[in-house]
Specification:
By secondary structure, this protein is mainly α. It is built from 6 helices and no strands. It has helices spanning about 10-35, 45-70, 75-85, 85-105, 115-125, 125-135. Helix 1 (about 10-35) packs across helix 2 and helix 1 (about 10-35) crosses helix 4 (about 85-105).
Length: about 140
């Protein structure tokens, strides 16, 4: 690789940043799906997936805020920075994870074999965007 897309250091950093976004998104997303899967509520899959996406965004922002607080940011700056993260990246991640789940199970259903595939899809989908954002603007998810 050469040129714009050939910065190995930014590929590694963007992968690390994408990993932290994935952890935050997965906590809320998978937790929401599991809640509805193992409860007595009869909620349409689309509703569960939309709630899962919303909760994934919230937990990603909360995780990022905690990371920034530990890095020495003040509380207000940490929250503002976390909320200013790339929602494009997080939405792409959430859409890829839920789309994969839906395509493989036909609904909002967690199974042992779907989770790693959904997480992989959630990682690789926004990773090039996160690299581009870091390379072009010096900004990343984390």
């Amino acid at each position: 690789m050469a040129g714009f897309w050939g910065n190995r250091g930014n590929w590694v950093k963007s992968a690390h940043n994408t990993k932290w976004c994935l952890i935050g998104c997965a906590i809320g997303d998978l937790g929401t799906i599991a809640y509805f899967q193992f409860s007595d509520y009869d909620v349409p899959a689309l509703t569960v997936m939309l709630l899962a996406m919303m909760n994934g965004l919230i937990t990603s922002i909360l995780l990022e805020t905690v990371i920034l607080l530990r890095a020495g940011f003040g509380a207000a700056d940490a929250l503002k920075t976390a909320m200013g993260m790339s929602f494009i990246s997080m939405l792409a991640m959430e859409t890829a994870m839920n789309g994969t789940d839906y395509l493989l199970t036909g609904g909002a259903i967690l199974t042992w074999w779907v989770i790693p595939i959904a997480l992989f899809a959630g990682f690789v989908t926004p990773w090039p965007y996160n690299y581009w954002r870091l390379q072009r603007h010096g900004k990343s998810c984390h």
